[in-house]
Specification:
alpha+beta; Alpha-Beta Plaits; two-stranded antiparallel ribbon; 3 helices
């Protein structure tokens, strides 16, 4: 236990201690390893102000045309708390494809988009329709 504490730094309020890593995270670019594979980082993209009849399948096909048939793409429709005159979607793509989606020329006029964190979408509606934070337990 003392070895773990010595390799970490304790910071923050004394009543609410947080352990923060001081060791940097290394990324490896060794392409000669063939027996095991790593998963590429993914980024989330929020696009909204699309017509209400836009479906997940339509948007997935459109993004697949832009990024290529072999690209990882996951599209989820966002259900809003209130009725809106447009549809919103969360798009998950590989890190190297994210910049292609940030090009405004590929989106229809008046559509809006931004990068988003996954935590923004981890919400679950309760029986009253209010949003609750999603808590996963092991």
């Amino acid at each position: 236990m003392t070895q773990e504490i010595s390799s970490m730094e304790v910071s923050g309020n004394p009543t609410k201690m947080e352990i923060k890593r001081i060791n940097p995270i290394s990324r490896v670019c060794n392409t000669s390893v063939l027996r095991i594979k790593a998963v590429e980082r993914r980024k989330y993209f929020h696009v909204w102000r699309l017509l209400t009849h836009t479906s997940v399948e339509n948007l997935t096909d459109y993004v697949r045309e832009i990024l290529g048939a072999d690209s990882y793409i996951k599209v989820d429709k966002i259900n809003h708390k209130t009725v809106r005159g447009y549809s919103s979607f969360r798009i998950c793509v590989s890190d190297h494809n994210y910049e292609k989606l940030c090009d405004p020329s590929i989106w229809p006029k008046d559509a809006e988009f931004t990068f988003c964190e996954l935590e923004q979408f981890n919400a679950v509606p309760n029986c009253c329709g209010r949003q609750l934070d999603l808590v996963l337990s092991g």
